[in-house]
Design goal:
Layout: E1 2-6, H1 10-14, E2 26-30, E3 33-40, E4 43-49, E5 53-60, H2 63-72
Antiparallel strand pairs: 1-5, 2-3, 3-4, 4-5
Length: 79
């Protein structure tokens, strides 16, 4: 699942919480964006925010699938 949420107050973004297990948080940087990757059992969660928008990608997937999705964000495709 992928979500994009827009907030009018940056404080609202700062107050978001995410469930995770005891695995360490990983950082994945792509296209000038730093995604924080958390695991929660069988699910992986990738979170990025610029203080106004919050992008979340989560679900039961392998790390390679998650990074492929992240890598595709903002790509331009020729038609």
């Amino acid at each position: 699942m992928i979500s994009v949420e827009r907030y009018h107050d940056p404080h609202d973004v700062e107050m978001q919480t995410f469930e995770k297990d005891d695995q360490p948080v990983r950082l994945y940087a792509k296209g000038g964006k730093a995604f924080y990757i958390l695991s929660n059992g069988d699910d992986l969660n990738a979170i990025w925010s610029d203080g106004k928008y919050l992008i979340g990608i989560w679900g039961p997937m392998e790390m390679s699938e998650l990074t492929s999705i992240i890598d595709s964000i903002g790509e331009e495709h020729e038609h």
